[in-house]
Amino acid sequence: MRIIKRLGAMTAALLACAVMTGCNSDGEPEATPRADIQLTPAQKVISQSNVEFAIDLLKASNSADKNVLVAPFSASAVLSMLANGSGEATSSEIIAALHLDASEANEINEYYKKVTTGLLNADNRTKLTFANAVWVDGSMKPSSDFKNACNGYYKANMGTADFKGNHTKALQDINAWVNKATNGEISAIFDPQDISSQTRFCVVNSGTFDGKWKYTFDEKATKPGNFTNYMNRTENIMMMRSEGQMPVSIGENADLIEVPYGNGAFVMDVIVPKPEININDYVSNQLATDYESLLSSAKASTCVLYLPRFSAKLTNEMIKALRKLGIKNAFTDNADFRPMFDESSAFAAKDLSLSTFKQKINIEVNEQGTKVVVVTGSSGRDGKVVDKDFIVDTPFVYVIREVSTGTILFIGKAQSLKDMQ
Asked: Do the beta carbons of residue 45 and residue 290 sit within 8 Å?
């Protein structure tokens, strides 16, 4: 049985967390026991909704002819902040897209605050950073409710920008913040066409994820290998090798392996559809129902994992995907972002709508671990288990998540590795 999944390194901006205790031979701190995040019953509902939103976002962003990677936790942070500054007609669609209802809206802020804090403390060998920022035009004043929500729950930097008078300088300032928040990994989120004299606000989230494998891949064991892509063509890749106790699930439509980082608080799930199932058909029609069953049936197995080494830099223009998820009002003349501003700015705010929603992600998967960097920005304007080799040499889905809550930080599809070596 050939059960190979391809794993990679991701970099995403989340929250910085590393508690140095002792160090092992590779210079990294000794792993401390994982710190599970304790959620209330209401927050557990939101956590499950996070999984459903993540899979929906991948499906809505999927393209049959290219690799895809999205950061649902980052996207949901921006959407949640926008929901705090929008009227009912606009916010209800955002909340529904997150698989929640209006009665759970007040829990979203508390959930984000608790989970981001918990993610930072879950694993001392996995470093995360999160940063949020909001800019409004200097001619307008944010409402106290919106400002308090963004500051109190999202620790967002609230700034002003002269979009009307000098939008070029505003663009430079916002992108400079992005460059600093990602340590230069992503130099800009907005392009010149995204920001104009009609822009009135921008909401941005950045995150970084830097996780070291629990079972490292020996660089000397990395060898040239073959990967059969989505067009059934052979690609030359570098295949890594690792051995250890990892949960494996053999399903009817796909196989899954959980590859742990650090103390096991974070894992990468690698899901490989059966050879006869097209990767795009799997993402569209079977992943949503398969994922939970594969996780629940996974059993610890001593196995040798062969995973491709890969890296990529991706940009997602997300308005089309968000519309597929039911967020339509926010992008039309009917959008209502008046609650984002105080009464003195109510007239100027009445015609605002979202004009940009995009995400940039850099990911690197290598023998040491996974590094992912993400920035999401929006702007508004007028089975059975056997001990065997698990080989990832065909198209696969990969998920980076926190174990105790199931929070999905990144989810992607790799169907061709030709340009990812």
From this structure: no
DSSP string covering 206-235, please?
Answer: EEEEEEEBSSPPPGGG-EEEEEE-TTS-EE
What are φ and ψ of residue 195, in 5° steps?
-120, 130
The three-state (H, E, C) secondary structure of 253-267, written as one string: CEEEEEEEECCCCEE
CB atoms inside a 10 Å sphere around CB 169: 12
Residue 402 has pLDDT above 90, yes or no: yes
Please answer whether residues 399 and 268 qualify as being in contact, where contact means their C-beta atoms are separated by less than 8 angstroms.
yes
Q: Which residue has the tokens 């400079």?
A: 176
- 390, 298 Cβ separation under 8 angstroms: no
Is the Cα dihedral 113, 114, 117, 122 positive or negative?
negative
Alpha-carbon distances, residue 119 vs 8, 116, 136, 312 (angstroms): 20, 5, 29, 24
Paired strand residues for 304? 243, 389
pTM of the model: 0.91
More confident residue, 5 or 49: 49
Q: Are 361 and 374 in contact (CB under 8 A)?
A: yes
CA-based radius of gyration for the chain: 21
